[in-house]
Amino acid sequence: MTLGAAADDMEAAGGERISGRRARFTEDWCCCACAGLFLGPNPMMARYMYALIFLVTNLLAWTLRDYGDSALAELQRLKVCQGARYCLGAEGVLRVSLGCFLFFFVMFLSTVNTRKVHECRNSWHSEWWPVKLVLWLGLTVVTFLAPSPLVQLYGKVAHFGAGAFLVIQLISVTRFIMWLNDWCRSEISQKRCHLQIQVVSIVTYVGSLLGIVLMYVWYAPSLSCKLNILFITVTLVLVQLMTFVSMSSKVKAGYLAPGLMGIYVVFLCWSAIRSEPHTEVCNKKAEVATSADWVNIASFVIAVIVIVAATFSTGIDSKCLQFKQAEGESEEDDIPYGFGFFHLVFAMGAMYFAMIFVGWNASHTMERWTIDVGWASTWVRIGNEWLAALVYIWMMIAPVIWKTRQVGSSAETET
């Protein structure tokens, strides 16, 4: 055998070994991936599936509202629809919302108080997707057989469910901002990125003030816009009040938390003014939006994505309503998030998207590609803004009050 032939044989053998290793690696990786996806419950992946179902339901409700007359003419054959009168438009949105609510409420009842990953309810939450898809579709179809008075009653109840959803959402956002502020003020964070934190704090605070100035320019061009001036001025007062409380000697929370909350309440005020009817003289920006279809479409798509994202982020934050630290450390076999709370938030989210699709008024006619427009929507968002500021202020001063009471009670006990 020549040296060249030997070298060729060695090269071929090496290539076979490399190919074999690659094949074994690919096979092992595929097996692990398949095992992770199909052989065991995966609650972290399941939450995205539920979010996808929620998104599809939103799109179905929008289709019934804006394009139901042409796309779903078959509904006219149902007696309960009375020529599609009670199955399209605003009531069609309520029917789809009712089906979504029933689905997630059933999931809530069947998964509430689940504690460990080895429980059967974890498997039900994370697997059995064909069964759950049939359940979701079945409940959605059944709602179109329900009588109109029952659907209208659900529409009235949905006002309260949507309001509860907004309250839980703002509490979740506020607690996240406070957690982020505490983390940034910790010794480790101060040593690593003190300058960056200071810059972000100043930018957020100045940004909230800049947003208020822009709202004065855009939505209060004259003194006749008294309501908009009131909304914006109250927002300015709330931003300053939150900053004053955070910087007080007893709280000492810094500028980051009030800056982030300032951005949040300014956004809520802006969205409230944007929800005013487009016929308002003071809402010039809304008139521009209606004149350009692509602006309306983009705003609608972003709004739907925000609804799903807000419901998702609130649903996995099952500890947002726990105002006391839980005793003991979490164990390895604990579920990663509260399944019952997750489904309950999505059930209330179904009520919420119904309300913003009909402008919080089932008898209100919505234009195509619009969402959450009307005076009812405006006042709901303004109330949400004011409540968010009050919740933040209370979360800031509550520890000081409790500490003062504890000191006073201990002093009385000693005497």
From TrEMBL:
Any one annotated GO CC term: membrane
Domain of life: Eukaryota
Compartments it resides in: Membrane
Bilayer-crossing regions: 48-65, 92-112, 133-151, 157-178, 199-221, 227-246, 253-273, 293-316, 337-362, 382-402
UniProt topology in membrane: Multi-pass membrane protein
UniProt key word RNA-binding: no
Chief location of this protein within or outside the cell: membrane
Keywords of the record: Membrane, Transmembrane, Transmembrane helix
Family statement drawn from the similarity comment of this UniProt entry: Belongs to the TDE1 family.
Protein name (Swiss-Prot/TrEMBL): Serine incorporator
Organism: Sorghum bicolor
Lineage, top ranks: Eukaryota, Viridiplantae, Streptophyta, Embryophyta, Tracheophyta
